[in-house]
Structure prediction request, 100 residues.
Amino acid sequence: MSRFASFREFYPFYLGEHRNRTCRRLHFVGTSLSIGFIVLTIRSMNPWWLLAALASGYAFAWVGHFFFEKNRPATFRHPLYSFAGDWVMYRDILIGRIPF
Prediction:
């Protein structure tokens, strides 16, 4: 089903789907908000905040893809690898490996 045998093979493809700087920035903002909502979930012990975490993460990313990158999010074809790719790209942006 997947044409990638591993995440190591998938990640270069994932980065290729995120060439547009605005798209990457929207991913970063959405993931940052998700982290905040996850912290809020833990602090408030209210699991409903997890819905906000999911919504913010995906909403910002999808806006980036549909309006700036002009492609279909990898989530639709490779949901698990794409979820992992977002976190790895987030880290790579934080440490300066990928330009913000």
